[in-house]
């Protein structure tokens, strides 16, 4: 078979499903290439994948007997300013593809000495802004061992939604400790579940920085972050990054409470704007104030930053 691949979002971040699809087809002896309407010619099958709903769909002509579209970007749509997940549009990869070692050669620069994958799926939280519970269930379950997508690379990027909620957390964190690789929990760890025992194991995992999250303003997590800050061995704020969701269900007062509390406890917030395209200008100012670290370090109060911006 001649198989074509299209990364609809672009090539800024490795598309894990396409890497697995490529690996499986190559294992069957098929020819696989990035599809080009001008150069590829007729294909037996072309796969399109996109993660983000706001990415425009691929519109160039596709010369193929079969065209398959997949990924979250095709089953999430915006309604009244809120994202809605359409389960009927979602298609999971077959097990033989889901559990194959990825073809990292598709993204040689992005995956240089770096492995990407999931050890767990699912999350018990059911947050209104997140589709993980609807897609993967409200129980975090182990779906793979590290060896499924890692073969000694120096870095590991984990995309798990809530690994600390998994019953197998000790086994999985132990695998990461044994790897001696530099680990990035890129979706953010659940600080509410970061018990002293789990933090002790996190301290043994090589990490440049740890990602946490404080997205729900109705939950006061000050004591949880205080515990984490006290027990986590890397003390500099730059080593402890906390995703903070704004423009969803919080007031500005709730946003600033989370931001200032995190600063006081020794964390670096990282502002994530929901529906950024339609957000009020103040959220974009807030994001630049917090996420631009030189500004964040030298301007402790938003009022001072905002006044300075408005006077320019």
List keywords for this structure.
312 residues; 28% helix; globular
Brief rundown of the structure:
By secondary structure, the chain is α/β, with parallel strands linked by helices. The chain has helices at residues 16-27, 95-98, 132-136, 169-179, 196-202, 222-231, 252-264, 281-291, 293-298, 302-310; strands at residues 2-7, 31-34, 43-49, 64-70, 76-79, 82-85, 114-117, 120-121, 141-142, 155-158, 182-185, 210-213, 240-246, 268-273.
Q: Can you walk me through this structure?
A:
Strand 10, helix 4 (169-179) and strand 11 (182-185) form a beta-alpha-beta unit. Helix content is 28%, strand content 21%. The radius of gyration is 21 Å and the shape is globular. With 312 residues, it is of the alpha/beta class. It has helices spanning 16-27, 95-98, 132-136, 169-179, 196-202, 222-231, 252-264, 281-291, 293-298, 302-310; strands at 2-7, 31-34, 43-49, 64-70, 76-79, 82-85, 114-117, 120-121, 141-142, 155-158, 182-185, 210-213, 240-246, 268-273.
**SSE class:** alpha/beta
Strand element count: 14
Low-confidence stretches at least 5 residues in length (pLDDT < 50)?
A: none
Helix percentage range: 25-40%
Tally of individual helices: 10
Spatial extent as radius of gyration = 21 Å
Order of helices and strands: EHEEEEEHEEHEEHEHEHEHEHHH
Oligomeric state: single chain
Mean pLDDT: 95
N-C termini distance: 60 Å
Largest sheet: 4 strands, parallel
The gross shape turns out to be globular
Strand portion: 15-25%
Spatially, the strands of the biggest sheet line up as 2-1-3-4
């Amino acid at each position: 078979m001649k198989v074509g691949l299209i990364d609809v979002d672009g090539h800024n971040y490795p598309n894990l499903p396409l890497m697995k699809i490529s690996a499986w087809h190559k294992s069957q002896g098929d020819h696989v290439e990035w599809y080009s309407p001008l150069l590829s010619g007729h294909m037996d099958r072309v796969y399109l994948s996109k993660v983000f709903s706001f990415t425009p769909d691929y519109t160039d002509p596709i010369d193929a007997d079969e065209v398959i579209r997949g990924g979250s970007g095709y089953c999430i749509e915006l309604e009244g300013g809120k994202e809605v997940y359409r389960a009927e549009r979602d298609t999971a990869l077959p097990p033989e593809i889901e559990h194959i070692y990825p073809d990292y050669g598709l993204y040689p620069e992005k995956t240089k000495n770096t492995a990407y994958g999931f050890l767990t799926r699912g999350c018990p939280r059911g947050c209104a802004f997140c589709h993980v519970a609807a897609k993967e269930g409200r129980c975090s379950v182990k779906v793979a061992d590290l060896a499924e997508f890692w073969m000694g690379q120096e870095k590991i990027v984990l995309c798990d939604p809530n690994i600390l909620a998994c019953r197998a957390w000790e086994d999985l964190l132990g695998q990461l400790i044994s790897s001696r690789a530099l680990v990035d929990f890129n979706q953010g760890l659940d600080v509410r579940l970061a018990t002293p025992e789990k933090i002790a194991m996190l301290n043994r995992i090589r990490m440049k920085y740890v990602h946490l999250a404080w997205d729900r303003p109705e939950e006061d997590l000050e004591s949880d972050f205080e515990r984490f800050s006290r027990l986590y061995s890397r003390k500099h704020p730059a080593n402890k990054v906390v995703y903070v969701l704004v423009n969803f269900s919080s007031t500005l007062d709730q946003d600033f409470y989370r931001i200032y509390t995190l600063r006081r406890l020794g964390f670096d917030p990282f502002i994530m704007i929901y529906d950024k395209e339609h957000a009020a200008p103040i959220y974009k100012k807030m994001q630049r104030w917090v996420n631009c670290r030189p500004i964040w370090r030298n301007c402790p109060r938003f009022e001072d930053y905002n006044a300075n911006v408005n006077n320019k």
